[in-house]
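Need tokens for this chain, all 252 residues.
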Amino acid sequence: GIVVLGLNRSHAKNALNKNLLKMMTKTVDALKSDKKVRTVIFRSEVPGIFCAGADLKERAKMHSSEVSSFVSKARATINEMANLPVPTIAAIDGTALGGGLELALACDIRVAASSAKMGLVETKLAIIPGAGGTQRLPRTIGVSLAKELIFSARIVDGEEAKSIGLISHVVEQNEAGDAAYRRALALAKEFLPQGPVAMRVAKLAINQGMEVDLVTGLAIEEACYAQTIPTKDRIEGLLAFKEKRPPRYKGE
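Here are the structure tokens for all 252 residues:
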């Protein structure tokens, strides 16, 4: 069903340190091979914060060679998240800065509260986004706008994020402070009834197709479609349609 991963490093605003990255990698690895998982939601258990980015207190104690290996690790972890075979949703109920926004950019869909604050602020620290931000932000909102946001280290709220296409849905924050999470959950429930194999290959077809020309992309679509033809679920879908009942998909 739906798996919810909640960041909960409250004393440090969910800042990404070595330990948190290690835990995230382990969790994502376990999810990759779990056939029961249909959708993953990334959220924060800490009110007002999604993720403040890298842990700068830890960073300040690192030797320069350590910094480079830490950033590589962060990039790899966030790539693993992006490559999860099932739909992923980032529920941004609070601040998502630097690596925190990069984490959200690696998800298929982003939902945020109007009060949430988002930005790639690395240039303020005389560095650049190093966990995919320079690549995923322009692919999400366009090159020119991505450059502007990265060059200025600007922070945008949920409304502006929606208007530039950084997020898909913006919601008014509620008293509990989990409006984006609730919207993400409603979205995940819309995904649940569909054929599990179809969901995985649809994601694969879109992800791979976006990186190539249209002709190659259409060949990828054809190869992905072919994977659904021999499935029991495809037969069940046709049968359910004929019998006017909801399909009972098993992911096989």
